[in-house]
Amino acid sequence: MTDLEHDATYFLELQTKTGWGRTLAKFAEWCAIPAGSVALDVGSGPGLLAKLLAESGVRAYGVDVDAGMIAQRLHAGMIHADTLRLPFGDGTADYALASNVLYLMTEPQPALNEMARAAKRVALLNPSELMTMQAATELADAAGLEGLARDTMLNYAGRAERLARWDEDDLRRMLAAAGMALERTALTVGSGLVRLAMGVRE
After folding, report:
1. Neighbouring C-alpha atoms within 13 Å toward the C-beta of 180
2. Using one digit for the tens of pLDDT, what is the confidence trace for 22-41?
3. What CATH number should be reported for the domain holding residue 100?
């Protein structure tokens, strides 16, 4: 098995066999995207979020640069493309969403700028300022998480501590730099370890 296949299988299991599937479902519900809208799930992995959106009547497309992810597709509308060069014209999508993508990037602003170019609204899911290894461990213990579910939660916290955890002011600044205003934000997962944010064109 290649590293690419291993990664794709890991993310397929992450989206379908752990609590992250429920988190994505809550994110989709929070976004409240009207049926008939065009939405891009940027860095979609196997595409569970796009699938959930499509089931609610949204014209959803999953976009991922990793061909292995596309091969594991959970949704028919999957597109192999670079996050920094989305194959959509300016403002042709109603929404662009990214869940646990931007915080992994050394320079997330160009990707956010590209999402803001292609869509009228941007919805983000990333580790919040409250995410720590201690908080994630306490959540995993309280929820009785084991195996893959526990490992992914703790890995998530470890990456967040090393890479990025954003509060409301951070996201307001990032969205403003992309020509968007922060419309609303919310905390979810346990004591608020994940922050959701919605930006709209100014």
Report:
1. 30
2. 899 999 999 999 999 999 99
3. 3.40.50.150
